[in-house]
Amino acid sequence: MKCRRCRGPAVIEVRRHNAGFCRDCFLHHCREQVRKTIEDFDMLQPGDRVLIAVSGGKDSLALWDILRDLGHDVDGLYLGLGIDDYSDESGNYARAYADARGAKLVKVDLPTDLGFDIPTGSRVARRAPCSACGLSKRHLFNQAAVDNGYDVVATGHNLDDEAAVLFGNVLRWSTDYLGRQLPVLPAGNGFVRKVKPLVRLGERETAAYCVLAGIDYQVEECPMAAGNRHLGYKDALNAIEDQSPGSKHAFYFGFLEKASPLFTPEAAREQENLQRCAQCGTPTTGEVCAFCRLAERARR
Amino acid sequence: MKIVLRNPRRELDMAGPMRVHALLERLEINREAVLVIRGDTLVTGDAQLSDDDEVEIRPVVSGGVA
Lengths: 300, 66
Description:
heterodimer, A: alpha/beta, Rossmann fold, six-stranded mixed β-sheet, two-stranded antiparallel sheet, B: mainly beta, Ubiquitin-like (UB roll), 11% helix, globular
């Protein structure tokens, strides 16, 4: 197989683009996909200070690398989740990337800094581990951005993540979630802007980016995610993609273009009804936000 | 050839030569869900693997999105 761009030997095939790429042209392709995403969705403005949520996995490290290459002012925040050795190893990958490139990485450790870990939080709150983890990440990344003067939080959600979440939301017609499933959530009401610049890249591409760019990342799966519903949706979508390349892209971008506007008014109405959490001041629908309730129960 | 699989890590021995897409088919692995790495670089589905190659089949699907 030849590289579509330079006609040299290809090292990766991207079937939904009906193309192969050599190493250098693939890295260029990934940067261009991210640059186009940022431009099309008006994600970042000149001078924005960007805080990237870094897990030590392929997506966040690829995103960090690409945003730095594109000249954005971006620092990393690693959140230690207290998931045994997995968290320690993941943190090591994030630290190694930052140290090798002289990038700034801030670490918040749930057990040390907040007095609980995800396994405990999940158990006492009777939430699925990924739900407790996601809730904690959303809260703490926003809080860190607000406290430290960042304009934007960028996350490594890729096309596969977004297509799988959309698949789940459509299966259940979760119209409130569908109204908020956007690649950019604007700032306001105590939240900084949130952006997902990797939505044009599949996770096979972000993993390939790391391998070809020489970025070591956490390959092992989080032990708490094993068997979750989201992985089942990804399996189903990959089976479809194998038969019909481009299906995931068409599903997600078709939703954004044709269906998303139908659901955004409901999500906007919910935003109007938010009040300040009595404990931390974060916007919430109740008196105390879900994160403060989780943390309080986990610390008992 | 030696095949290294991940999550959990394990190794298989298979006779070569064989093309990458044939290897994935034989192992019933969806090509959309993995990268195939020989040495320090990736190989495409049409690449021929020889008997003395060591190949890693690395999963790319992560599932922690809440």
